[in-house]
Amino acid sequence: MPFIIGRKLEMSQHFKEDGTLVPVTIVEADPNVVTALKTVETDGYSAVQLGTGVKRALNAPEAGHLKDLPALGTLREFRVGSTELKRGDAVTVEAFTPGTKIDVTGISKGKGFQGVMKRHHFSGGPATHGQKDNMRMPGSIASQRQGPVSKGQRMAGHMGARRVTVKNLEVVAVDAGKNTIAIKGAVPGAYGTLLIVVSREGKSVWQK
């Protein structure tokens, strides 16, 4: 099952072989390096750690972990049932083929502090019948008898900048020369956002 670390480049459009025009997101994924392998015998679970990007200076633990490997700035771990990869191997976009169904995980755009109408789609209060300056207010949040505010109560607060996974997207095209993947539709985050791309085929994989 293919998986890779990439970055969101831009939105674009792509013509399929049948002439259909589809919106796509271009994700750049330079060759990832396998930096570590976890096994059930030694770690209690099976996983592959990939690295990408460049870091100018590594601290002592990072330098020891990446011994004999490039100075990688981003590391992510993927839990897999079994793999033929070895430490030092490269994972490229060529592992994906057009038509492959994938899951894409990233950090959504941050919207700052927002009220309940924008954050939770509240309808707001009436603008008549004695109301004043309350049209966008949340209204009652329960009675005093209930005690503290219930956990998970929908209120104003920080919006966005959360880890989001969009499932069952489709790979439209792969450009090995530019290290890019064209994914049908939109993916989380702003341009430059770090993305985790995992194929849905075969045994399930989850990333942390």
UniProtKB/TrEMBL annotation:
Cellular component (GO) terms are: cytosolic large ribosomal subunit
Pfam families documented for this protein: Ribosomal_L3
Decide whether keyword Ribosomal protein is in the record: yes
Keyword check for Mitochondrion: no
Q: Which UniProt keywords apply?
A: Ribonucleoprotein, Ribosomal protein, RNA-binding, rRNA-binding
Similarity remark: Belongs to the universal ribosomal protein uL3 family.
Its quaternary organisation is: Part of the 50S ribosomal subunit. Forms a cluster with proteins L14 and L19.
Q: Write out the function statement from the record.
A: One of the primary rRNA binding proteins, it binds directly near the 3'-end of the 23S rRNA, where it nucleates assembly of the 50S subunit.
Q: What is this protein called?
A: Large ribosomal subunit protein uL3
